[in-house]
Structures are given as C-alpha cells and as structure tokens.
Write a structure and sequence with these properties.
Rieske Iron-sulfur Protein; 1 helix; globular; metal-binding
Length: 111
Amino acid sequence: MSDAINLGPAAEIEEGEARVVPSEEIGTDDDVTIFHAEDGSFYALDDTCTHETASLADGWIEGTEIECPLHSARFCLKTGEATCMPATVGVRPHKVEVVDGDLVLYPNQAP
C-alpha cells in the first residue's frame, strides 16, 4: 500500500515522543513508529529493531537518532541506517509529513 494515510493532528505527539501505527492498519510488514524529534521534525521507521525483537517506540530519541531500549543499538531517524552496534542492519524508513497540521504517512515510500 502506498497511498497517503492521515494519522490525525501532529500536535498529539509531543517532541521527544513516539507513536506506533499498527501494520494491519496501514498494510506494512511491520508496525511503523512516528518519531517527533527534538528539532520538531517527524520521522517514520519500521518499529522493530533489527538486532533483536524490540519496539523502537520504547527507545530514546537523541537528536536525530533512536536508541533501542533492549541493547542500545541506534538508528538514524532520517534514513533508518544502523549507527551503533550491536545492530548492523538498518530499519526501513517511510515518508511522513505534516499537512495542514495533520501527520500524513506514506507507507513503504522512502522519505
């Protein structure tokens, strides 16, 4: 599925917080997490850490990286690239943007 999905008001996700969008609602292989970075930007990544099964939504946003809560692997919020061991494989990024105050997700589309 590559159609745009309106997720509602962007203001519902505070800076430094994340929100999981279940895969069955958006037609993806994994849940997608929307991250509201400390600089005010929004990013969307597959939710599951590639090192071991853990929800990245439960991790810590630091700048433009998310730290996995299980073993501290880090991923770039912009690209999904693994930036710190123990993860060596990145997670898939998705396009997300704010349109008229709402978050719009484009599942399976690169940012």
